[in-house]
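Technical note accompanying the year-one report. For the benefit of new consortium partners, we illustrate the data format agreed upon in the data management plan: each record pairs a sequence with a C-alpha cell string. No post-processing was applied to the example shown here.
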Amino acid sequence: MKLHVHERGDGDKLALLIHGGMSDHRTWHAVEDELVARGYRVIAPDLRGHGASPRGEYRPELLGDDLAENLPGGADVAIGHSLGGLSLSLAAERLRPKKAIYSDPGFALDAVPAEATAFMRKMVATATQDSVRTMNPRWSQADIDAELAGFALFDPAFFDGVRGDYVPERPVVPSLVQVADPSFTINAELAAELERRGFEVRTVKGAGHCVHRDDLPGFMASLEGWI
C-alpha cells in the first residue's frame, strides 16, 4: 500500500513520526516544529485508513508492513504514539532506526475494554470544536483543528480489525517507552515488564495519553538523550 507521507525540513538528521489511531500526520505539528528547529528532516506518514492514505484491510501486522515499505531505513530516531507506537514496533526490525521512542504505545490492544472502543466510535462521529476542547483543555487551537481534520478522514471500519496483544519481546534498537500519567495503554505491571525486557521507561507526570499535545515541554524534556 502506498501511504501518504508528509515531509518537512532539510536538516542532516532524520526523524520518523508515526501518529496514533483516528489522527493523521498533523497531530505532530508542534513536535515537528521542535525537531526541525533542532536540525532534523521529518517524515510523517498517514497510516492506512487515516488521513490521505488509502483504505484497505486492517490488521496490526499490515500497519507494520506499510511502514517498512514506505519509510526509509536507518533514521536517527523514530517516534510512534499509541497505535503508531505499535505499528513502529512491528516495523522496527526492518526500519532499524538508530533509536526508537514509543509514546504511550498500544502494545496490548485486547486490554482496551469494549466500552472504550464504543466511546471512541461515538467521539469521532459526533466531534465538534467544543467537544474536543472540553475533553482536552490543555490542547492548543492548532491541536483541536488537527484532531477534527483527522477524525473527518478516519475510516471507522478500522476499529473492527485492529485487535490483539503485541508486546515486544525485546527492543531491536535502543528504545524508550514514554508513559502518560495516567496512561490509557501502559499499566504499572506492563511498564515493569517492558523494563525487564530491556526498554527504558520514562513517565511524563500529569500528561494524558496524547502526551505531545497535553504537555509539549514535558514530552520534549522526557526525550533528553534520545533526540
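Partners are asked to follow this layout when depositing records. The beta strands are 5-8, 13-18, 40-45, 77-81, 100-103, 175-179, 200-203.
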